[in-house]
Amino acid sequence: MSRAPDLAPAGDAPVAVPTGNTFDKYGSTNPVVRRLMSGFEGTLDRLFTTAAPQSVLDVGCGEGVLTYRWAERLGEKPIVGLDLPDPKLEDEWGGRRRENLEFRAFAGGDLPFPDGSFDLAAAIEVLEHVPDPERTLSEMARVAARHLLVSVPREPLWRALNVARGAYVRELGNTPGHVNHWSKRSFVRAAGRYGEVIEARSPFPWTMLLVRVS
Description:
By secondary structure, the protein is α/β, with parallel strands linked by helices. It has helices at 31-51, 65-74, 87-94, 133-143, 157-164, 184-192, and strands at residues 56-59, 79-83, 101-105, 118-124, 144-153, 195-201, 206-213. The longest helix has 21 residues, at 31-51.
């Protein structure tokens, strides 16, 4: 449950790490990256506002950048971030502390929470990495009482853009670590098996969904 170097400049060599971001897309000063991230973060904020959660589980939280922002926004309402065990991530988590925020290392498998434990379960730029996304979505729907909030790179646009900028050409534009590839239509169909897709947005070049769980 990691996040890859999705928006790294084309000249940067990918770093093989199992967790977290190898490129800080949230803190980048590159104007192209900032423009793309503005659309991404604006859309994510609108869907989060629509969901209006009273509690959140962030699956594959990486360094916890979004998790911490959501914790600030939730005030005293609880939020839990999960990701694979990694000392680098734990160091990052240690710098992001709030009373309503908990980070947990999680080795994978079934989520360690009872049914309906959280209003919202999120997986932001995660499901393209996991070997069994159906199981992950099923588990998220199980522990979510109201909504899922999920995003993935939109294919084949994502790989075409990588090739156009000269990145990962030998891999036909596939970002290292991406093992699942969805068009907007196929991702809506996959997520729709676990509830009603009430919002489907396309901030360039991603697909982002808000799902009301069944």
